[in-house]
């Protein structure tokens, strides 16, 4: 995955998202990544899909207030009712051009029907 693709989500980290030292809360970043993966999962499932697991999240670099955060997704695997989505978050300082990967994780989603039961994901 590359920061040169179109992101699933791009936002600016704001003061309300940070601790007293100006570092963005990990939970805020995790929420952003889950949201981006959820958008990708819903499009692939052509309907509702819910997060059932998240694996391997490692924070490589901090995100600071004012940084632009871009989240990229890639569908790694699709099963009968589930899919695994690789997610990367990148930061770019407000007045710079270079981006740095700050974290990555794999999210597992399950497609569900109107009653909340797993349903098949159609082949592409």
Model description:
This protein has one domain: Roll (Thiol Ester Dehydrase, Chain A). It contains one helix and five strands; from the N terminus they run βαββββ. It has one helix spanning 26-45; strands spanning 9-12, 49-59, 68-78, 82-92, 99-111. Strands 1-3-4-5-2 form a five-stranded antiparallel beta sheet, covered by helices on one side. Strand 4 and strand 5 (99-111) form a beta hairpin. The longest helix has 20 residues, at 26-45.
In terms of topology, how is this protein built?
Blueprint: E1 9-12, H1 26-45, E2 49-59, E3 68-78, E4 82-92, E5 99-111
Descriptive tags:
single chain, 124 residues, alpha+beta, Thiol Ester Dehydrase, Chain A, five-stranded antiparallel sheet, 1 helix, 40% strand, elongated
Specify the overall morphology.
Answer: elongated
Largest sheet: 5 strands, antiparallel
Percent of residues in helices comes to 10-25%
* Sequence of strands across the biggest β-sheet: 1-3-4-5-2
Strand composition percent: 35-45%
- Please tell me the overall pLDDT: 94
What is the distance, rounded to the nearest whole angstrom, between the alpha carbons of the first and last residues?
A: 21 Å
Helix count, DSSP H or I runs of 4 or more residues: 1
Structural class: alpha+beta
The CATH class label is: Alpha Beta
Unreliable runs: none
- Which sequence of SSEs, written as H and E, runs from N to C? EHEEEE
* CATH topology type: Thiol Ester Dehydrase, Chain A
- Rg: 15 Å
- As for the number of domains, it is 1
Assembly category = single chain
